[in-house]
Amino acid sequence: MDPSSIPLFNLAERRLAWTNQRQEVLAQNIANVNTPHWQAKDVRPFAAALDNATGVTLARTDAGHLAGTLDTGAQSLLTPAVGVHAPDGNAVSLDEQLTKVADTATQQQIATTLYAKYLSMFSLALGYGQ
């Protein structure tokens, strides 16, 4: 059984790849907290990355539905984070970056836990867990 052929596992793997990439970008921001003129970066939200990767977007089924405010066009993977600049031009807020790191670590832990639980349920259903 190849878990990547099951959409649920494929989604979990993509989520883990996204959290890994976000942790790398946030680590670069923290490493450059004292670098003059460094602009903090972040990756696009996972939902936006997922929409662009699958080509599937939400459809308006009624004229009364709101169109939404998210830009569904192609964007680069990294987006500049908006922040206050220090006198040396650095735009990295250490508190904000550490909060994002903790949030991303929590998302990574949730995705890993769900992946492991579903894998154990599939193993049990196939008779491997006895």
Tell me briefly what this model is.
The chain has helices at residues 7-31, 46-54, 94-125; strands spanning 41-43, 78-80. The chain is mainly α and 130 residues long. Strands 1-2 form a two-stranded antiparallel ribbon.
Give the biggest beta sheet.
2 strands, antiparallel
Spell the H/E element sequence.
HEHEH
Give the mean pLDDT: 80
Our count of domains comes out at 1
- Strand percentage: under 5%
Portion of residues within helices = 40-55%
Weakly predicted, low-confidence segments:
70-76
Distance between the termini: 17 Å
Structural class: mainly alpha
Per the principal axes of the C-alpha atoms, what is the gross shape?
Answer: flat
Discrete helix count? 3
**What's the number of extended β-strand segments?**
2
Cα-atom radius of gyration: 19 Å
Major sheet strand order: 1-2
